[in-house]
Amino acid sequence: MIVLVLLVPLLLAFWLWWPVTSPGRRQRRWHFGVTLAFALLPPVLGALWRLHALGDVAGAWVQLLFGWVLVAFLLVLPLVLLRDALWLTLRLLKTGVPARTLLHGVRLNRGIALAGVLLATLGVFNGLKPPQVHERELALRTLPPELDGLRVAVLADIHASPVKGAWRTRRIVDEVLAARPDLIVLPGDMVDGQVESNAANVAALAELHAPHGVWLAPGNHEYYSNYAAWMAHFRQMGLGVLENRTAKLDIGGRTLAVSGVGDPAFYRRGDLVHDGIAPDIPAVVRQAQGSDFHILLAHQPRLARTAAATGAIDLQLSGHTHGGHILGMDRWLVAPANDGYVRGGYQVGGMTLFVSPGAGQWDGFTARLGVPSSIDVLVLRRADRE
């Protein structure tokens, strides 16, 4: 899949300029050469990153540049498809000669290339800026009356890194605390990079506090970044780390179980994943027996069907999808890769699933267009049982 993605810019460099009419070969070659040089950046930068030729700091900036170039070409792709679909339609109708000339003219296609670069730049800017708090009510049929109105802050996919810096995490923490949640959960992908080079960028998370605690479950990017070291570091910070574990909380005389499970990245052990734990939903179901309401923190939403099948979990909170990043891409690419779940609330059997758009995203694909990052504050409400 990675190889196919990296081939897109190379193919587009040719496809963009091949049908374009120009005054001469020199101008065609110049346009193609510049675009090809741009298209070669993703495989070169990707190789530098995968070969571990750079440290965490330089590597994070390389990932950001890689993602910016890749997104620019991905945004050019639908524009080129539209261009040639219109051209072919006019050609088949044997009409619109001036329009066909315009569609395959130098100026329009320079505009297509520029649009891709500008939209990618805007997308990266949107991705890097701090998220805002979005509050919503979540109606739950199995919620005990004593838990009605419970405020749960969902802080998913922070992806703290040298690119985003400590200031961004500080802003996120301030926003969460200002929302005054009763419970704070972090369902994975808090970091990118090693503890030694990135601890300062997550330090502000130690200041998170809520009446019923701050609870964390791992995501796939913790598995890429020395899983054991990060779990130990999060514990030292005072965060409640749930590795296939359940915490039982007494709230208003009722027992709320908050569980966290490992990530399916465990099953892809190899160059990127060296350690970690497999998700064990049956284990947390056993630990939560006797509770009145059960919340599961599972980083990837595709665990929802397995969780719902147990009949013992009322609400699953997930992240991982980053809301789909870009309108269009969210529904056509990201949702199908995650069992149809991309952002917001879903009913999965008798269980409710909420997928957060995330408070950040991986530096290698930071762009957001129409899908802003988010700190989600869920107000749990008891739904009408009738």
Structure characterization notes:
With 386 residues, the protein is α/β, with parallel strands linked by helices. The chain has twelve helices and twelve strands. A hairpin with a 2-residue loop joins strand 10 and strand 11. Helix 2 packs antiparallel against helix 3 and helix 3 runs antiparallel to helix 5. The longest helix is centred in the N-terminal third of the chain and has 37 residues.
Output the keywords:
single chain, 386 residues, alpha/beta, six-stranded mixed sheet, 12 helices, 17% strand, elongated
Sum this structure up briefly:
It is built from 12 helices and 12 strands. A hairpin with a 2-residue loop joins strand 10 and strand 11. The relative contact order is 0.14.
Which descriptor suits the 3D outline?
Answer: elongated
Average predicted confidence as pLDDT = 92
Q: Which strand order spans the largest sheet, edge to edge or round the barrel?
A: 1-12-2-3-4-5
Please identify the oligomeric state: single chain
Q: Which radius of gyration do the C-alpha atoms yield?
A: 23 Å
Structural class: alpha/beta
Span between termini: 47 Å
Summarize the biggest pleated sheet: 6 strands, mixed
Number of strands: 12
* Total number of helices: 12
Question: Which stretches are low in confidence, meaning pLDDT under 50 for 5 or more residues running?
Answer: none
Tell me the fraction of residues in β-strands, as a range.
Answer: 15-25%
Which range best describes the helical content: under 10%, 10-25%, 25-40%, 40-55%, 55-70% or over 70%?
40-55%
Element string (H = helix, E = strand): HHHHHEEHEHEHHEEEHEHEHEEE
